[in-house]
Design goal:
Three copies of one chain form a homotrimer. Chain A is α/β, with parallel strands linked by helices. Chain A is 30% helix and 20% strand. In chain A, helix 9 links the parallel strand 6 and strand 7. The first copy, chain A, starts with 13 loop residues before the first strand and ends in a 9-residue tail after the last strand. Chains in contact: A-B, A-C, B-C.
Amino acid sequence: MTAQLRWPSVAGVAYGGDYNPEQWSREVWREDVALMREAGVNLVSVGIFSWALLEPKEGVYDFAWLDEILGLLHDSGVAVDLGTPSVSPPAWFFHAYPEARVTTREGVIMGFGSRGMASHASPVYRVAIARMAAALATRYADHPAVVMWHVHNEYGVPVGEDFGPQAVEAWRTWLRARYGTLEELNAAWGTAFWGQHYDDWEHVGAPAATPTTPNPAMKLDWARFTDDALRECFRIERDAIRAHATQPITTNFMAHQSWNTDLWKWAAEVDVVSDDHYLVGQDPQAHVALALSADLTRSVGGGKPWILMEHSTSAVNWQGRNIAKRPGEMKRNALTHFGRGADAIMFFQWRASRYGAEKFHSAMVPHAGPHSRVFREVTELGADLAKLESVVGSGVDAQVAVLYDWESMWAQELEWRPSDELQFRGQMRTWYERLWRDNVTVDFALPTHDLSAYRLVVAPSSYLVTADAAARLTDYVRAGGTLVVGPFAGVVDEHDAVHAGGFMAPLRDVLGVTCEEFLPLREGERGAVAFADGASIIGDVWQEDLTLAGAEVVATYASGPGAGGAAVTRHVLGSGQAWYVSTRLGVEELKEVFVRVYADAQVVPPGYPEGVEVVTRRVGEEGFSVVVNHRDEPATLNVTGTDLLTGAVTDDGVLEIQAGAVAVVRLGSHHQGGGS
Amino acid sequence: MTAQLRWPSVAGVAYGGDYNPEQWSREVWREDVALMREAGVNLVSVGIFSWALLEPKEGVYDFAWLDEILGLLHDSGVAVDLGTPSVSPPAWFFHAYPEARVTTREGVIMGFGSRGMASHASPVYRVAIARMAAALATRYADHPAVVMWHVHNEYGVPVGEDFGPQAVEAWRTWLRARYGTLEELNAAWGTAFWGQHYDDWEHVGAPAATPTTPNPAMKLDWARFTDDALRECFRIERDAIRAHATQPITTNFMAHQSWNTDLWKWAAEVDVVSDDHYLVGQDPQAHVALALSADLTRSVGGGKPWILMEHSTSAVNWQGRNIAKRPGEMKRNALTHFGRGADAIMFFQWRASRYGAEKFHSAMVPHAGPHSRVFREVTELGADLAKLESVVGSGVDAQVAVLYDWESMWAQELEWRPSDELQFRGQMRTWYERLWRDNVTVDFALPTHDLSAYRLVVAPSSYLVTADAAARLTDYVRAGGTLVVGPFAGVVDEHDAVHAGGFMAPLRDVLGVTCEEFLPLREGERGAVAFADGASIIGDVWQEDLTLAGAEVVATYASGPGAGGAAVTRHVLGSGQAWYVSTRLGVEELKEVFVRVYADAQVVPPGYPEGVEVVTRRVGEEGFSVVVNHRDEPATLNVTGTDLLTGAVTDDGVLEIQAGAVAVVRLGSHHQGGGS
Amino acid sequence: MTAQLRWPSVAGVAYGGDYNPEQWSREVWREDVALMREAGVNLVSVGIFSWALLEPKEGVYDFAWLDEILGLLHDSGVAVDLGTPSVSPPAWFFHAYPEARVTTREGVIMGFGSRGMASHASPVYRVAIARMAAALATRYADHPAVVMWHVHNEYGVPVGEDFGPQAVEAWRTWLRARYGTLEELNAAWGTAFWGQHYDDWEHVGAPAATPTTPNPAMKLDWARFTDDALRECFRIERDAIRAHATQPITTNFMAHQSWNTDLWKWAAEVDVVSDDHYLVGQDPQAHVALALSADLTRSVGGGKPWILMEHSTSAVNWQGRNIAKRPGEMKRNALTHFGRGADAIMFFQWRASRYGAEKFHSAMVPHAGPHSRVFREVTELGADLAKLESVVGSGVDAQVAVLYDWESMWAQELEWRPSDELQFRGQMRTWYERLWRDNVTVDFALPTHDLSAYRLVVAPSSYLVTADAAARLTDYVRAGGTLVVGPFAGVVDEHDAVHAGGFMAPLRDVLGVTCEEFLPLREGERGAVAFADGASIIGDVWQEDLTLAGAEVVATYASGPGAGGAAVTRHVLGSGQAWYVSTRLGVEELKEVFVRVYADAQVVPPGYPEGVEVVTRRVGEEGFSVVVNHRDEPATLNVTGTDLLTGAVTDDGVLEIQAGAVAVVRLGSHHQGGGS
């Protein structure tokens, strides 16, 4: 599913960040490389925003400064991930080609002065980025510092969609390729509804400003089109580089933080997967979202080691309240990424910018300079990572797969669903957190993937399920797998059309249940769910009126609009079991479901104290457990082995880990699990 | 005031819904008509969104499929309310005539892809809809299935206003017709304020985006203009049909749910009044708003039976949380409409759409198919309605009139009023609910109507009162009527200008009081109102500083900015009494006022248990009480007669009604009222 | 710093308001002047919105009605402040010159129909206002009624910024003048960040709609440019008048209520400073903001008497809930302005408008007419002011300066700061209110002013501090001054660039402390601050990680992310002391800081009961204390003298003041201060 991934030639764990020397004097450059050495930096990304300096006038190039900085870095033993600057075309470009500017849904044409790529559909932009990529590749293909290419930056952010005329033209072309005939398009979009029938391709417009909600199948296709178009732009640059250079090529994703790129498809295009991740400061459990994004990144990359291309040493600058990391937090964050498969730990950015929109973003060298808490911790982290070379290249074990489908998310997040409150992202986070608290490590997957190796498949939010996907899940269960599915599942097909036969029709075989009607709750309303064994939990936002078709009722609604009906069901099919949970439950409440599901799946959570995160990387016979204590108090765990960071040996099988601390334990042969 | 209303030739209570066969295969059509027969359906609306299929290219018509479906329906004994598709011009239309698209206040031109009519002012649109209406009328004037014409759909929704150049041109023409000279316009709009004087008609623009609040008289006229322009579009279609066909013509209103059509004027244009109504799911008392809209619909139609053209079998799809109806609720809703004068009970729509923006809207045949709770209840309702033929044609008795004036609402909802929190809609709903809880049935009226037949006239929110209206209310009271007026009344004239003489000047004679100053409360602030007899209630949002001019003080402000001043006054004038309530009161608090007002008006609430809704239809000597128990427990009422639904006879005068149940009692001769 | 201020030739305290006779008939005019006499009015502002009447067609003037009204006023002894109508160009102007309309950031071109000037950059507008001003000045230079010129109205409201092409052209010219070369501009804006380098002036656009946050230095310059451009428009009119007329010229500010005019610069352009002030009704302590705005107005005018050009007799109309003033409140407001230096007390407006967007704005003659509470109080106020002639021309004593810098505010309010919750305006208000409650009268100042006369300088919110400003503050402290600085100070330079050396670098010398990292709190989070002597207070929103550089720690963080670190510091430098407060504190909490700061500064609050506001005007040896009791109960104060309003003599040194009352005491020689 993904291309053959290739690792850049950096020894050990790669460590560093975005480096923007163009913001500083040569004097500072020299201080920079000295400090990089002090901090253990061995890789930096250069040139991501440098178009205006590399091509100050159209067709006039200036590589001298870049030659100089690459030389300086190379001489200092710092390798370079060389960026292409396509995310930020220069002022002259937008002045010369105003038609390349991006148009919003409301028809506002966005000007220069911040950052953001041109319209993905602009022919002149596509020519310009190919030319720039080729120029860079020609010049630096053999530069000894350059070990990797970094195309663009965070595709889709801050703009992805374009509603201008060039994009509409490209959209029509895309639709012709997808549907062939207008008959097919009219059928797929259900244009008979509301009289939207098309009889000429030229009449098809973008889903821009309309009097009321546009056709949802059109909007879903528009999301696919935009994603495809962005990927075309990537391929243009990638291929221009590859024509001249052999280093691996990447572009930095934003897994579970940016929403308009289908990373399953993107990962197939890159040589190595890389990801940016930023904490949402307001969330006191932001490290759970971090773990999710790390697992997702690893999963789209097929389990191979990946690059944490950007995270922050402390606060970011673009949130309402930008919470600074406290002492030790950066290390916990970095090593959680590492534990979940990142063999490169990078930051935005090396040195804090004095100017511009992100001057309040933290950096490896903060405004306060090297004599600061942040730089001390950066240096300590560099020293820690240097001790972890033996882990490099290892994978991550997971017995559980969580289904994560961008197309289903796009469809579910369209307008006019039964309840605004039941959303893909929230459900994904809540169900993931249940597994996280149980220290059950997961991979993410699509339902169409081969799931046979997993004991348990979890589908927190699978609104769009194709007939093919449903058949595969059915086969998976029949063959002995355990499946647990969250509410509002199997509702529509790939065109956002309700399945013939009603909600959940394609899941009827596997789940043994369908839904007759959705029962959203009123604001503030809650409903009790009673299990046969007497346990009772509370759900909110959502209930369903289920029709049994073979499943047994595990729990019923004790209150709310569904009172008396089935709430949680279990269906034995072949050698497996399939569960359905038809209400929204919180992390605590889900425990009551998952304890039963784990039993069916023979998944045994290790029983570590809650708040201590443990994830194990394995290569061959060797295992390395990364242990992160998120609690404000120490914990003891039944783990035997040697902490690579401190050299401490826990031959008695009891690892003591201080509040806020991290250990990376090369595992001994004894049994692991449990603790207090 | 309204035209002679004409009922379509359907026997008994009409029952059915919107039917969109173009979304389905011929196979499904055959299942549809079979199910319609099973459900007792005798009327469906067809073709509302079919323009693109009826005229696939400009001037090329295809009526074959419509011929076929009308034949099929007719053969199955289902009559047809034939729609004109003007609410949804095809893609080719907007492509050929982009100037017909609607422009928003901010200048955004809205494209194709959802639904919504063209600009009401577009000449080409007006030609196209006349041509289509004529084509349909020519072809189906004599079709035996077609018993009624359904022009357009929900005028004003989702777009009514247009700010494009054609609309501005029409606006100037409208203004010339209204004012004759610019001197008149300048005077009416008070353009001396803020230097807005016009000396050329061409300088008058739309009240679109402006640096700050536009001239309010201009905005009020703009609302009138838009309403008039929409009605012109209706008349174009109606007259085109009438030139060829004789069946009654309607268009579906949205009483108390859509705001930019003055239904007093619209009702005068149709042959039979029809209305769409949808519950606001978040409101646990949504059935009160339903009753209000039903009474309003009947009232604009002059008390004649009307058609409930659309409501829902269960949830809708366009709210934040779309609450499904629970068992029995659809029946209660439907029979409440019936009790308040609807002789046709119709739904949107017959069969749930698998595609499009409204796929989560419930239907008579839901996605789950006929073997479902919803379809069972649909069939039961059809059987119930079949028992009610004897009620058809009867009217509804009301001793009380509530003033409801769209122009006053438009004026009051303009910007920059003393408090954003005091609004027409909220006041209307609260005061109506007081009467509803008391089972005091009301008609709605304009102050300029003949009110002499009513014992009591209630004016919850009469911000705009013309001198003529005030004189009529004065005459009404002087002749023995009782009037009760809510706060912020009689403030402005038809140009939204404060009356010469100050706030309430034209109501001074009738109310014996005027207002010197409005005293809005701060957020969260409340103020006590003390009655002479010791009763005390709490108001919020608003108080007034009143100047007595003949009225007696019934209650004074005990706290708040008006403390010490009059809060509620009563004025004896001629043989009548006029009350003024100068603060905002809740439904419970209003009881303290209405108990006194009822006494003056000799209105005697029947004393049924609260939460049991009883409304009585009468024809000649016969009376039929529709009894709806909204409570979660049974009730007994002093009602004598025979329940037409069950055949049960309550000769002892005591009707037992179960929780959530409905009875339609053909009344005996005994006294009615009271219960527990 | 300000021009030589000149007072209009009105004897005693000027009293009156905006007068818009064009809205009324000649009959009303005669009633008006009679009522003005009754109310003691001696000055009215005329013609502010009269362009359409004065020049009904381009180049055609009609001054007859203005001649007439000026004559009538003069005959009645009422002087005139004659307005130029440039804030409201007529319909014909915008029709003839559509390019003069204002364009929003999103590209919406705003039309006619409300009010608001044309684009400040429009050449044709500039010509038109110069011509109109010259025409008025020519005609009325020698009119005996006209004692002052009132140019425009509230510059910047409701529109100041323009993003249309003419404004962008002017912006480029302004930038060329400011920076000379593009190299300078690129350096100042830090265009190396995000690749924003310019190599052609024509490529520089406005900071309009962009994909994400625009360059902050660009936005800060845009604010300066807009302010300058508005001031250019003022100068065009002023100079056109001055060419013909000699009366003083003003324009009405909105100190601390409108934000895009730097009043330090504006005050230098006018002959006499005038200000509009409106209460924010929702704020129960709105009189504190009133006092702030009055002190700020006096301060920008260099301490000279100023004109309260507009305030309201009761409610305004443009807030969500427009709270009416209660009896006595207008007098308290008016005399607070007077006490803080206003020698003219004026209202918007004389007579309430029956028409237009502001019909619910209160006036001197309300809709209820002269027989009303409001007009009675207006007349009483006129009589009161007539007793205060001896105070006219006096100044206000202040030992304390508060730094108030528009440029710093503009910079701080740009996007993407560490916390949205820490804002200039809120901090300014809170810290001011601390001083207000202590009855410590303040002047406002810029850090670059000569501060040597002040015992204490308070800097609540000084985000932008230039090196020059920092040096002056350092000198001030070294020479014996006391300085207290609030959080998030000294962060950036004049280009919104973080100071080289880190946050607070330029304040290091004076404060003896810098900030290593900002520590915003999560929503709802709070943090304790513990003083060495055991006192403890709670802050919210913000903490900092401080690095000491000579300061002593006065209080430390007891909880929150900064726990254990310094919260409040004190630095002895030369003969002075400099305090730094690094968290956000409320008015009550600040007491704990200010009691210590006052001691350092030898500022002795007078000890009047809280809620009694006392401010003293002085001229030569004479002092006049304006005493305003904002409490609901009486108070006694140790004040000796004679109340000019009542004639009461407090020879025993004890002034009794009733709840809500005001006294203006000509002070005796005894000691003042204290009370209960």
